[in-house]
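Figure 3 (text version): structure tokens given as input.
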């Protein structure tokens, strides 16, 4: 079983609870609004990181972070974008099995009729809009995809 840790909207804050939730991940996806480059460095100490730039990632360090990313883990094709409203400009590639996004700070694991999982891990950074802090885990194997939203705070 391959475990993909999924995080978004850290806005420069990497809580200890995030590290605890993502320990043991085989890879990590950050779906944007990173906030500081140190966030990616600390996540990379846990597992290889695929990251995209969010709307708050405007400083020079973020120029090297792509707007979208595609990756494949255990035969599962993943597409990452920060704001799903940008899919009109950056459409989901054919054959994608999981679309990961952030921006709204609202966690979501939704299977669409076409069999594609749309996944937002919620916000792991400063709490906003009275929404809970959370990350996601997606467990992958040759048989299927199992998403989970992990609450970080009581």
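Below: residues designed for each position.
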């Amino acid at each position: 079983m391959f475990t993909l840790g999924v995080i978004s909207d850290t806005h420069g804050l990497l809580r200890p609870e995030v590290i605890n939730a993502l320990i043991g991940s085989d890879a990590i996806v950050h779906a944007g609004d990173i906030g500081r480059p140190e966030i990616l460095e600390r996540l990379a100490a846990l597992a290889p990181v695929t990251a995209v730039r969010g709307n708050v990632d405007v400083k020079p360090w973020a120029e090297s972070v792509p707007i979208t990313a595609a990756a494949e883990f255990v035969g599962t094709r993943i597409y990452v974008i920060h704001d799903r409203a940008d899919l009109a400009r950056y459409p989901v590639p054919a054959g994608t099995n999981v679309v990961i996004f952030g921006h709204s700070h609202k966690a979501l694991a939704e299977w669409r009729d076409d069999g594609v999982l749309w996944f937002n891990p919620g916000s792991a950074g400063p709490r906003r809009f009275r929404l809970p802090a959370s990350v996601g885990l997606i467990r992958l194997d040759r048989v299927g995809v199992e998403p989970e939203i992990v609450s970080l705070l009581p």
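The chain has one domain: 2-151.
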